[in-house]
Amino acid sequence: MTVDPGPGDLLGPRRALVAIDGSTASDVAIDLVGSLPWPEGSSIRVIECLDMGPGLYGGPWPALALTQSDELETALRAEAHHEIDDARERLAGPGRSISGAVEFGRPASVIVEEAHNMSADLVVVGSRGHGRLATMVLGSTSAEVVDHAPAPVLVARGTRIERIVLAWDGSPVAERAVDAVRHWPILQAAETRVVVVADVGTAWWTGFADVGASVSPEQATIAVEAARATLAEAERMADDVVRVLREAGRTAEADVREGDPADAIIAAAQDAGADLIVLGTHGRTGLARLRMGSVASSVVRHAPCSVLVVRAPEAESA
Question: What's the pTM value of the predicted model, to 2 decimals?
Answer without folding.
Answer: 0.83
